[in-house]
Every structure is written in structure tokens, then in C-alpha cells.
Design a protein that fits this description.
globular; alpha/beta; binds adenosine-5'-triphosphate; single chain; Rossmann fold; DrrA1/2-like_C; about 300 residues; ABC_transporter-like_ATP-bd; 11 helices
Length: about 300
């Protein structure tokens, strides 16, 4: 699996204020790589530097390790967070115009546009003005725009925002398909459940710096400790006395016991006292959503555990 994009030691400041520093990651062929972080972390700044919308103060960005060459824009597709299409143009014309900007053969672009319109349930809409489309339909056309020219690298900034569940599933399946066919995907999204499900690897950024970089599986095993959720009225102090409790949250009759790293859940369960009140009990690994909140709110278990990629 070759490396398509390499971002190395990227740094950018605005008016003396350092926005991102030492950002380094790679996107490999055919993988879905997620770039995550709280609002204002520096994701869009990173993406804008990759897209050449702004220029780095420090570091390099290379395509297929070709040092000193500018990134071939026609090999990249970009769905920006802030979207918009020319209003009084019909769907096919806008898609062909965008393909032409990328030097893509127009007959092939037309074929691809028709295929995608059909796939996205927009068959027969090619002559319709963009402004006559519903919001969801417009989003589908916006999704087709960055893939019309068969880019090697596709950058998707919040592709699922505002989509109904059916369209969300449609986009998700299409992203999988593109990756399967060899397109490299850099995905920025705040929908952690989707990222957890879809991404092969992730890069998490906080206050302009890397906090996690690695394979989704490794991040989960290394960082997503087990938590035990118990429903039943139990004394908080008594629960805190249980072994291997890293953190405890209690609200009403529900207690969430965050366990230490490397706890074996079956063995841990055997140590529970017989008088514990249990209406329901579940054991899960903490989700990417919880990892994200920990980092974003500076509860940061990473620092406490001190051993993950950062
Ligand atoms: N053109 C600019 N001039 C000055 N500051 C900027 C500019 N663009 C971004 N910033 C600042 O850089 C920081 C990072 O912004 P960026 O848009 O990269 O964050 P983000 O991670 O994409 O956030 P979000 O999830 O909210 O989209 C923010 O503090 C923002 O105010």
C-alpha cells in the first residue's frame, strides 16, 4: 500500500499566533484516514494547506513522495465544509464544468455524472437548475463534484452534516466503495460513531498539535479502556473502593465505572461484592466519542496514561 500524501512538520501561524505546529501524517492508497479534533483545533487549516488555499510557514506536503513538486490539483477531490454551487446552472453543466477545471475528458465525465446521478436517486435531474433542488439533493450533487474526475486523493470535510439517515448511508457506502477501488480518503467529521466505524486510521489534533495518530484498532486497544455501567442504587464511596477504578460517574441509579488499562473484564467481574445492587450491568470499551470528549475537555486520559502515540 503506497503512500499518497505525506504531511511533514506542518506549521502555520496567523498574526504571530501559532495555529498548528509539527503536524505530520500520511494518507495511504485506498485507506480511510480520519482527521479529528475539537472546534478550532486546526483541521481546516491543515486541509487548506494541503489544498494550496494557504501556504505553510513550516514543513512540507508531498504527493507520492515527490519532493519539490507542487501537488497535482487534478489528482485531488475536495468537498469543503462550507459548500455552495452556482445557483442558476443546471446539474450536468456544473459537474462538467468542474471536471473540465480538472482537465478530465468531458465524455467520460458525462458518463460518470449520469452513473452517479442514478446511483444517488437523481436520475433525470441533469437538466434541472441547482437552485430547484432540495437541500439533500444539492448535497448529493456536491458529493459528486469532487469525485467526478476520479481523484487519487479525496478530502471530505464534514460530508455527513445535514444528511438524513438514508443519504448518510448512501454516502457511507460510496466512501467505502471509493476506498476499495483505491481512492485515498482524508475524512474530517465530528460524527464519532461514523468515524469509528469507517476509518482505518486516525489523526487527532488538539490546539494545533497531534494527540493521537494510529490505526483505529490500535487506538482502541491502547486507549479505549473498559467501562462497566451498572444500573441499581449503590453507594458511590463503596463503588470507589472496588479494584481498578480509574474514574467513576454516578447519576441517579446509574453508575459508570471507568476501569484501569489492562484490566481483564472477566476477572474484574469476579471481584464484585455479592451485595451490589444490579438491575442491569454492561461492560464495553469506551467509544471514540468518549476518547474525543476526554481530550477536548482536557480530562485527557492520554496524559494520565501517558503512553499513547502523542
Ligand atoms: N484566516 C484566519 N485568520 C486568523 N485565524 C484563523 C484563520 N483561519 C483559522 N483561524 C484560527 O485557527 C484556529 C483553527 O481553525 P480551523 O478552522 O483550522 O479549526 P477546525 O479544527 O477546522 O475547527 P472546526 O471543527 O470548528 O471547523 C482557530 O482558532 C481559528 O480561529
Amino acid at each position: 500500500m503506497g503512500t499518497v500524501l505525506t504531511v511533514k512538520d506542518l506549521g502555520k501561524a496567523f498574526k504571530e499566533r501559532k495555529i498548528i505546529s509539527n503536524i505530520s501524517f500520511e494518507v495511504n492508497q485506498g485507506e480511510i484516514m480520519a482527521i479529528l479534533g475539537p472546534n478550532g483545533a486546526g483541521k481546516s487549516t491543515t486541509i487548506r494547506n494541503i489544498m494550496g488555499i494557504m501556504y505553510p510557514d513550516e514543513g512540507t506536503i508531498t504527493f507520492h513522495h515527490r519532493q519539490g513538486e507542487t501537488i497535482p490539483r487534478n489528482k485531488i477531490g475536495y468537498l469543503p465544509e462550507e459548500r455552495g454551487l452556482y445557483k442558476n446552472v443546471n446539474v450536468m453543466d456544473i459537474l462538467l464544468y468542474l471536471a473540465e477545471l480538472k482537465d478530465y475528458p468531458l465524455d467520460r465525465a458525462k458518463q460518470r455524472a449520469l452513473t452517479y446521478l442514478k446511483k444517488f436517486d437523481l436520475e433525470g435531474k441533469e437538466k434541472v437548475n441547482v437552485e430547484e433542488l432540495s437541500k439533500g439533493m444539492g448535497q448529493k450533487v456536491q458529493f459528486i463534484a469532487p469525485i467526478i474526475h476520479e481523484p487519487e486523493l479525496l478530502i471530505l470535510d464534514e460530508p455527513f452534516s445535514g444528511l438524513d439517515p438514508v443519504s448518510q448511508e448512501l454516502f457511507k457506502q460510496e466512501i467505502y466503495q471509493l476506498a476499495k477501488n483505491g481512492t485515498s480518503i482524508l475524512l474530517s467529521s465530528h460524527q464519532m460513531n461514523l468515524v469509528e466505524e469507517m476509518a482505518d486510521r486516525l489523526f487527532m489534533i488538539h490546539r494545533g498539535q497531534k494527540v493521537i495518530y494510529g490505526k483505529m484498532e490500535d487506538v482502541k486497544t491502547e486507549y479505549a479502556n473498559f467501562k462497566c455501567t451498572i444500573r441499581g442504587f449503590n453507594n458511590k464511596a463503596a463503588l470507589e473502593q472496588l479494584p481498578d477504578i480509574n474514574r467513576l460517574e454516578q447519576e441517579g441509579d446509574q453508575s459508570i465505572l471507568y476501569l484501569n488499562k489492562d484490566v481483564h473484564p472477566a476477572k474484574w467481574l469476579q471481584q464484585l461484592p455479592a451485595d451490589l445492587q444490579i438491575q442491569e450491568l454492561t461492560i464495553d470499551r469506551v467509544s471514540l466519542h468518549e476518547i474525543f470528549i476526554d481530550i477536548a475537555t482536557d480530562r485527557n486520559l492520554l496524559q494520565e496514561e501517558g503512553d499513547v502515540y502523542a
